[in-house]
Structure formats: structure tokens, C-alpha cells
Amino acid sequence: MSLSPDDDLAAAEYALGALDPAERAALAARRQREPDLDAAIAAWERRLAPLAETIAPVAPPRDFLAEIESRLDDAASANAVVVDLTRRLRRWRAGAIAAGAVAAALAIGLGLRENMRASLPHEYVAVLQKSADQPAFVVTVNIETRSLTVRPVAAPPQPDKAYELWLIDAKLGAPRSLGLLKQNAATASDVASYDPAVVENATYAVTIEPPGGSPTGKPSGAPVFVGKLIPTGP
Amino acid sequence: MDLGVKKDAQDLAALIARVAGRDRAAFAALYRLTQAKLYGVVVRIIQRRDLAGEILQEAYVRIWERAADFDPAKGSPIGWMATIARNRALDEARRVQPIALEDMPDGFDPPGEDVDPLSSRQRSESLQALMRCLETLEPEKRQILLLAYYRGASREALAKRFDRPVPTIKTWLRRSLADLRDCLSS
Fold this sequence. Notes:
The complex is a heterodimer.
Chain A: H1 5-16, H2 21-33, H3 35-48, H4 65-95, H5 99-114, E1 123-129, E2 135-142, E3 147-152, E4 162-168, E5 176-181, E6 187-190, H6 196-201, E7 203-209, E8 225-228, E9 230-231
Antiparallel strand pairs in A: 1-2, 1-9, 2-3, 3-6, 4-5, 4-7, 7-8
Helix pairs in contact in A: 1-3, 2-3, 4-5
Chain B: H1 6-20, H2 24-45, H3 49-66, H4 77-96, H5 125-134, H6 139-151, H7 155-162, H8 166-185
Helix pairs in contact in B: 1-2, 2-3, 2-4, 3-4, 5-8, 6-8, 7-8
């Protein structure tokens, strides 16, 4: 292994869970790019994993199975697109294709999927990005259920800050917050209180805010990532 | 009930293999068998019950998504599942409660301190090996390491609790972890 002893011990602390937020986020970002570090973290996780046997079970407050299964149902429809997009985006970045081509290819990618997704006419996807070659989040919206899912694709970690999602549309007046976004996992939100036409046509924007979100209820600064929805169904 | 027994591990591994094949019935069975264990993992790190339930759900979604990655040769099923749940809980803990040890109960008793020799048959061989290595650490250092594992306590929180400077905690944790690695590979 070509990992430095210091990095191996950082990996150990990461697996143990003792790093502070900034270091944890930094290492989480590095492991995406550094296979050796990723392998070291996995090895440490395996070394410590037997300790899980010693943890006493605690009955959950209620049965979550039905909720989990419905998330799997949602994911099954949304993930096909998102996983596919994520893969394409990675490939494009690796290939350093000219920026404008990414947006065009995205539209083609989504278009190709239309045939397969005829049964899901209410699905929309937006890629939130700074510029066309830097996609950060993928937003999936189901207009029918008014549910919205945001997945990080390549958003740079913001250890001491939070990403906040906004719905921007002339009909709404001021931007409306859709909540804080998780940096390492999908965030589910709902837009049930908004007019479907607004949800469909609005601009989705992400700002960088203090950890608890914008203290004023309005974006603290200019959006760092923006995008609009594209229908994925007929 | 401890799930560390070999037979249970084989059953869980078989279920995970079926889950990898997108078998929802196997997933439901896996959930029933392991929910309390994983909730136990999560709730020690995320004390807020509303958040802990959310993290548990996300952990199972990940388990569903990553079932094909599970390799029985590399560890126990419950260890693999617990690692997924722990990582979700740790990410969340660092997000919502950057320094949260004030509410850590004093009555915490790391299992390393009271290993029951009679129950050792209930423990997997890998746990027994890990326990033997943990016992070679000095008691305070072992306790710090276990607290980090069970409660997801950060260096800063540990420094406060043990009244030591943060760099000392870092040095101790790293030394302990390096010692563990060497002990496990010997």
C-alpha cells in the first residue's frame, strides 16, 4: 500500500468516528479520488466491525419497514436516471469534454430514457450546477406526488456551512426555502404546498448558508448552483 | 439476543445475497432480524429519537442499494450492516451536533471492561481476537477508543470528558489504533 502512515491513521480515526466535522468531510472527499485511502478506510472499518456484536439492541420506536419500502419504490424510479446520470457525468469529467457538450449530452441521455419511462409521466430532473461541466446536485421531482429528492453528485464539501435549496419563481415573489441539503446523501423534501406549474417551471438554486440555514429566511448570497427541471417522461 | 453466532451470520449472509438479487421478501426478513441491532448502533450516536429513526431508514435504503457489495469473506453480515448504519449516523452527528457530549451518560460501560468469559462462545472469532487486542491497551486509552466507537465521540468531546488536551487525545487514539492493527495482524 502506497498510503503514508499518517494517512492510514487518519483513515483509522475516520473509521472509528473521532474526526471533527471538517476533517471528516475532507477525508470523505479525498476517498472519492484516492483508491488507496478508500481501501484503507474500508480495512479499518472491517477491523473495528466485530465490535458491533457487542452493541445491545434497542427496539425502534415504531416499525419503519413500510416507509423504507416506499423509499425503495421511489428510488427504483428515480435512481435509474440518477445513477445513469452520475455515471455519465463522471465519465465526461474524466474525459474533459468541452463544457457545453455536457448539457447537451444530458438532454440526450434523458431523451433516451423516455421510451423506458413511459409509465412515469410526472418525473422531472434538474441538474444544479455552477457551469456546465460542474454538476453539483441532481434534483428529481415527481409532480404527481409533489415529492422532491436532491442527490449530491459532486458538490464540494462545506464542513462548517450548509447548502440550502431555494425555489425561485416570479409568481412566488421572494425565493422560498426548500430546506438544507445533506452533503453525502439524498435529501427528500416536498413541494406539496406549491402550485404544480410553479414547481415545474421554477428555478432551483443552492446557496451556502450557516450550519442552521439562512438566519433571515432569505438567501444570504448569490446561488452557487442553479438549474431548471427537464421532463423525463412523455 | 446476540446475533454473533455463526449460524445466524450464515442466515443473514444468505438473506443479503437474496437482497442483492432484489428480493423484497428477503429484505423484509433482514429488516425484522436486524432492526433493533442497527437502531442500537444509531441511537448511541444520534440521541435525538426523531433523527435516529430517519437515519435507520436511510441505512436500510443503503443496505438495499449496496447488498451486492457485501463479501462474507471480509467480515460478518451484522458488522457490514452496522458499519453502514454507523457511517450514516456519524455523518449526521457531525452535521447537526458538532460537539455533543454534554448529554453523554456517565453510566456508560464499555463491554471491553466487563468481558464475560462464559459468553465468549457467543462471540465470533474475529470479535474475540479484537477483544484480546483491546485488552492490551491501557484502561483509559481503551475506554477513549471504545467511547469514540460506540458514541461517535469526536476528539474534542473526548478531550473535554477526559480532561486532556485535544492533541493528547489524537495521539492516544492513533497510537491505540496502530497498536490494535499490529496486534490483529500478529
